[in-house]
Structures are given as C-alpha cells and as structure tokens.
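Quick board copy: two proteins, each given as sequence then tokens.
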Amino acid sequence: MTAVAAPSVASLVQSVDWLAIAPPTIAAVVGLVVLVADLFLGERRKALLGWVSVAGLAAAALALLPLLDGDRSTFCLKTLKGEQAACSYTADHFTLVIQFLVLAGALLTALLSITGIKDAKNTPRALPEGEFWFLLLSSAAGAALLPASRDLATLVVALEVASLPAFALVGIKRDDRRSSEAALKFFLSSVTATAVTLLGVSFIYATTGTLHLTRIATALTQVDGQFHTLAQAGVALTLVGFAFKTAAAPFHFWVPDTYVGAPLPIAAYLSVIGKAVGFSGIILVTVVAFPSYADVWGPALAALAALTMTVGNVAALRQQATRAYSAVRLLAWSSVGQAGYLLVPIAAAAYSKDADKAIGSTVAYALMYAAVNLGAFAVAALVARTKPLNRISDYRGLYRSRPLAALVLGFFLLCLAGLPPGIIGLFAKVTVFSAAVDAGLGWLAVVMAVNVVIALYYYLQWTATLFRPAEGEQAVQRIPAPLTAAIGLTAVIGVGLSGAPQMVLRFASTGLF
C-alpha cells in the first residue's frame, strides 16, 4: 500500500500582511489596553485613558503612510492558474482615503469627548471613562476595517463591529431617559436593517456560490435565468443595512432623537463616521460586486437620493429656534440632507461609463463634509457648556462673546450651504452636480438644485443669528485645550481646502479602485 503524504503544515497557514491591517489593528489593540488599564487606575488618573486613546488613534492614522506606495492585499484564497485572485482585505487608494476619514474623525471625536467627560465628572451624569474609550476605539476599528473588506462576510462583521459599540455610546448617559430611549430606537431599527441585509447576502450566496466581491461580480453575469429574480432581490436587500447607516430616507427616522439623546461628541461621530461606514459599504457592494445589476441599484439609489435630500432639508427648515436642542436637531436633519447629496454620484455610477470618477465625487464631498460638520459640532459643544439646552436662539450674540468661535461656525455653515467664503463646499457640490448631469440624470440634478436653495435659508438664518445682539449677559468660560484643538483643526482644514478648491476637482477625477 502506498503511503499518502500528509499535507505540509506551512501550506495550510496563510501569511498575514501585518502592515496592511495595521490601522484597524492598532485601534483595536489600544481599545483593549484602555479597557484593562481602567481596572488598575484610580479615579484621579482615569483622564490618562482619554489621552492614550487620542495617541492610539493618531498612531493608527500614521500607520496609513507606509501603505501609500501601492495596493496591498491579505487573507487571499489560493488560486489556480488563470483564476482571478480573491482577497478578503485590500488596502487600495479607496481604502486608505476612507480609513483616513474614519480615524481622523474618531481622533477629533476623542478630543471633543475629553472635554465632555471632564465637564460631566462629579455630576449625577458622569460617564464611565474606561468603557467610553473602549467602545469608541472598538467602533473606530470596525469602521476602519469596513472599507478594506472585499467579501460580504467581512463587510457585515465590520459593519456590526462599528455599530454595536455605537449603540452603547448613545445610551451611556446614566439615569437619562432621553439617552436610553435614543439607544433603544437606534438598536432596534439597526438590528432590523442588519437582518434584512443578511437575508440579501444569503440570496447572493445562493445564486453565486461565493462571498468575495470580485467573484460575485463575475458570477452575477452568468446567473441562470430561473435565479435572476432571486439575485435581484439579494442585490436590493443587501443595500438596506448600509442605507440605514447613511441615514437615507426612509431609514432616517432614528437620526434626530439619537443625536439629541447621545453625548454631543457621539452625535458628531455618528454624523460623520457612521455615514462613512454606510457609504463605503454601498460603494463596495454596488460598484465592485454588483456592476452587472446597475439597472436594479441605480434607479433605487437615485430615488433614495432625491427622497433623502428633500426630507432632510424640509425637516431642517421647520426647526424652531427656541425649541430645546434645536441646534442639534438642525444638524441632525442637515446630515440627512447631506446624505442625499452623497448618494447622487453613487447612483450616477450606474449610468456612467466612468464609475470611478463618479465615486471620486462622493468621496471628495465626504471629506469636505466630515471636516466642516465635525467643526460645527465642536462649536455646538462649546456653546453647550454654558447653554445645555443648545437652542439655536442660544447662539445670539456669540460673535460678541466669542468672536473667533462665531466666525468659525459661520464659515462651517456657509461651507455646508455651498456659499463663499466656504468655497470648498461650493466646489464639492459642483462635483456632485456634474456627476448627475454627466450620467444623464438631469431630473436628479434639478432636485438637488432645489434642495440646495432650501438649505440656504436655514444655514443663513443660523449664521445671521450669530451676529445679532444677545438678550442679556453672555457667560464666558475658558475654552479647554482639547476643545480648542478640535475647533482649530477643523477650521484650518476647511480654510486650507477653500484656499485650494481645485484639489477637490482633481481628487474627484482620480481613480480609487
């Protein structure tokens, strides 16, 4: 009898490119370090955990620099000769840009949170520091993993790793009914969306026999006729979970209550990093995995874009300046409207011969939106220190009491509106508008133009409020260094980009895949 040689142990072990996976790995490891360190630090020294978290997020962002020289992939299937390679993790240009957005956004959120946690200390609503930083770092690690994911299983896992800690962060305020209700609403609606997405993933796997995005793209072009409807249903259902994360209508209903109930830095985090997660997932499943089914997702995303921007802007327009938390609610509804603009180029990719250029427009707009929206939330956090109800009317006279903060917030609002001197916002909107026109979606461009005009009213109204005389004396407190750094960084980025707006146009025309 001939002995059969046992397979080599080395052949069964996959090599891992640790440099490629360094950014999300560093964030995750630092999160674990913070969680363990929290057990041994006394109350007086727990403030160190925040600065360790900031350092960890900065290190994770710096880990992107060695990856700029080219695409790297890991966790790949061994392929036969002539067979297309399939990897679960790829660090290409798209991945690096989104990871930079996520990690930089999480870093700014951490700076805002240091001040918020310190202000709440020794009060009935003090936040548990170790748990807070662990949850924030865990969510950031999942958000950084998602744009690198190249199979549906990893995509869904990354989506949940980014989401589950966020539920806890929204409800982390102790003995606060509004916070608990917001977390419950956020959790239940997100779980439902995830279940629908998993059903869609199962349909895709049943029709293609694979979970890797590149192989799904090939297999969907050869689907048997009797499975065509199943594949179409799978494509549509898979988009639901990611549409929920982007707060696209009709999956947006959780946004205003969640933003009001969450700590303000977490509301800022959800408005930027949550959207980055959702849009990354939508881009990957549509452009990379489902290009042959553009006739299914293209019209669906175009309709979602039109509905989302209209619902968001009309609701923002109706906010009353004297209502409690009206400033946060306006930013929440504004973020829904902005999500509609971000969906436009992705929908245009279904009709465009150059999908990469259309996707570049979305990513360029997302980078602009991330900087100025985080900056607006940072100024809102500053005002909330003396005006905890954070009404729009509370911003009257801000220019007199804090002229630099008022000028910065006015600049951020004009960027979101797309008006000078916020040139970067104007150019970002032009790239999105051009993507729709170039793809032949003239009706969508018209809807966008109408919504931009609607948004001008409430952005300009809030900006004007900053320079109106205040009613009574304005309390002035010293601005903590972390909060100053967050406001300053976002202002520098926004002003710098407005000084070189052609960078947006150049970035929008760059291939990311």
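And the next:
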Amino acid sequence: MPETDPETASESEPQYAQHASASGTEPERAAWKRRRAIDALPVRALLGQVPALVAVVHGPEHRIAFVNEAYSHVFGPRPTGAAAREALPELVELGLLPLMDQVRRSGRPRTVKSRRVPPQQGAPGNRRRPGYYTFTCTPITTSGDSGVLIFAADVTDQVQAVERLRASERRQREAAVTLQRSLLPQELEQPDDLRVAATYQPGGTDAAVGGDWYDVITLGAGRTALVIGDVMGRGVRAAAVMGQLRTAVRAYARLDLPPHEVLQLLDGLAAEIDASQIATCVYAVHDPNEGCLRYASAGHVPILVRDADGTVHRASEHTGPPLGTGGWLHTSGSLPLPEGSTAVLYTDGLIERRDADIDEGVAALEGAFAGATGSPDIICDRLLRALGISEDHDDDVALLVFQHPVRTGPDAELFHNAALDLLGGTEAAPRARAFASGVLASWRFPTELRDLGVLAASELVANSLQHGTPPMRLLLRRTDRRLIIEVTDGDEHLPRRCRAEPADEAGRGISIIATIASAWGSRRTQGGGKSVWCEFALPGR
C-alpha cells in the first residue's frame, strides 16, 4: 500500500479509518492507530490547534509562511507569502521586527513580556478591548531557508490581576499614610525656651508605611518632653499601634515622671496592645533651669547633641530594651544642653542602609549634623538631603530637631531667673514674700500680676514649710510668655488639692494656687524631694 502524505492525511483518514476498522487486516489497523497518534500529526495541524497565537515567517523580509486560527481571530487573516512589514502591521506597532531580525541572525530565541495589544477594529468578541501578550520569537533553520516562529501567549488576566493587586496595595498604603499623618501632631507645641521643628516622610511608593512618630509636650514650669519612636512593621496596623503609644505617652507625660518611669509604663502598655509588635522610643525632658537633657531610650538610635562650637556628642548606649519585650528595668541618662546647643532625635530610616552597618549611618549623620546650621526646620531639610533621603527612600523617616538658643539684646530682657534659698523657720515666709515682691517689681510687671505672684509664692512656701523638709528653694522665672513660680524641698510627698471645711484653718493653699494661676503641678525631683510650681500667662500673650 502506498505511503500517505502527512499533509493530506487528515483528508484521507476518514475513509481509511472506515476501511481499516471494517475489513482491514491487523497490520493495517495498527498503521491506522499510529497515524492517529500525536507524534504522527502534521506540524501545521498541531499549530492550528494551539490556543496561543502562532505565526511562522521566513527569509530576510519575514514573509508569512503560516498563521494559526487563534492569530487570525485576534488580528484577522493574513496572506501567505506577504512580507511582514506590510502584512503584519501589528508586529510593526509592537516593535517586534527588529527583534525578529536579531533572532534570525543570531539563531537565539528572544522573549518580550506583557506587550499591550490595542483593540482591533472589527475584531470579534473580546478582541474589541485591549489585551496583553508575551511574545517569544524562536529561530527556524532548514538546509535552504531560515525563519522565525512567533508564539504569543495571552497574559491579559495575569496583567489585570497584578494591576488590581497594585491598586489595592496603593489604596492600603494611602489609607495607612493618611492614618499615620492624622495621628502625628498637626502642629508642634513651641516651648518658651526651645525652638523646635519636625518632619515625617513615608517610604517610597513600593514600601508600606511604618509606625514612626514624634511629639513635643510642655510639662509646665518651663520643662518640655520631646519624644520620638518607631513601631516595627508596616501598614495600617503599625500606624494604629503608633497612635495608641503616642496617646499613652502624652497621658504618662502629664504625671511628670522621670523618663525611665514613663518608658516603664509604656513598655507594659505596648505588650498589652499587641504582643507581636515591638517598638523603640526615646523620651527626653529638657529643663532650662538645669541646662541639661534627661532621657531614657528603649532600644532606639542615639540622641545627638551639637555644641555651639560644632562639636557633636552622641548619647551613650540604650538605657533599656525595646518596648513590648517586658521584664526589664529602664534607666535614665543625661546630656548637657546649654544655650547655643542643638539636638536631634530621629528614627532608623534616616541612617539605616542595607549595604552598611548602622554605626556607619550614625557616623554619617554626625558629620552632616556638625555642619548643618540654621533654624531647626532648615536643619531638618539639610539632614534629609545630606543622608540622601528622597521620595523613593524605602523606609519611613521621622526627624525632630530642637535648639536651646542664645538670647541677646531685647530678646534677652524677656528671660530672667531669680532664686532664694530658704532654711525654714518663722522668717522663711516673710523673706519669700519680700523677695518675690522685689523681683517682680524689678521685672516691671503690672501691679495686679505682681500681687498675684507674691500671693502664689507665699502660699507655695507656706505649704512647703508645713508639709516639707529643708532644704527649700524659691525660684522665680519669667519668659516671653509666662511667669513661673516654683518651690522645692526635701520631702517626696506630693501635694493634692482637697476641699477644706469651713472650720479648717489650713488646707486651702493649693486650692488658692489652682484658682489664681493659669496652671500648677508637682513632681519628684532628682535625688529625692519634690517641686511644686504654678504659672501665670503674661498680659497680651
């Protein structure tokens, strides 16, 4: 029996199959089965059944040898023998002709991914909308010719899924950034004795927002708490935990505790909020009367302080582990912060790089900080530029800069300190009243404010004489915005405001202070003892 041409096998097969199955011999039936096997199918028949787009071109002009039905369904029928530049305009628009030239010359396959195919005019079904295809060009070589097999797989669903995922991630990031910014201070408190500026920059568009935060809290009596922290992790959850910690810090700050005790309370709260979330934090308190910065650090990067001559000092090691670890006792440290000095608190996103040790980042910040002069907001901008922080930076950055300025000329006339040491005894109260009256008169306060200041000093000293122990000290301080009166003694028991009965001869001192002053408070002092203070807002401030 003569051999059947593979290209015509499909046409003769039905008759042959009928004959072989009905009256053929066993060898004939075996031959018929072999022709029905996949390895016996002709190439054109195979490519015609492939759902992907297939075209075969040959020669230097890439003349069409074959396009399958799927290709014709998308781009329409193409005439065999025509050059690709005229007959395959879709490949020209997609920029594939140079690639096909390269494949034919080199004999190496090439692939281009996710090329957008515009909607085809008059195309049936869903081809009226754009699609995405990955094209693979494979060289074909025979003894007398060479060509390219073009194979295009439809990846529209995958591309659209990726776009939906990116859109979802973008919305989540925008929500996290909005939440983050809403939880940060909308306007920084500006203390009397410090100039403060801060900035926050979320990570680049491909990075989920983190839990960096900062805060400035006025504690009264001229003291200021400065806070910066970083919740580990990304997204809305980290931002939410950050908001809870920041709120807690402000609440604990009102207790006017030492820095390490604030972090101790915050550590327990962090574990309760989310045991899986770890946070670092620095809580520092500036006291203009002491000219220093007392701080506690829960695993955070070190504070930097620059003196007026440009020398930069780095805070010592962490005074405790990160928040949320539990089981550790935090301690407080101290850094000098005299007039003319500047300090910076920051998160690790400013200095941490994947290809360098974090100590190298701190050293780079020290070098940039040493030469960064100007107001705090200018210093923030200069440090960000010097450390290469741009919109594409892959981590959140929070930065808090504050200065203890040197005041000269008319500005210096608005800031005064006066102190009187009291040893107790019956002469202490009259001495305190006389001292306060003379000082307030020399500061040219109005008569009403001077009288209120003398009354407040008298009541605070009387309270200390009755409930405290020597040594005692009366401190008067004026700033450009307020008058501060403070009395310290050696007893640690803090006063409370209580209701005195009509027949009581004592117990009204703190109530009087609370009534006449703008604010009052008390705290335990370093080394034992306590401080009780009150403030009066200056007229026109």
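Board note added afterward: The radius of gyration is 40 Å.
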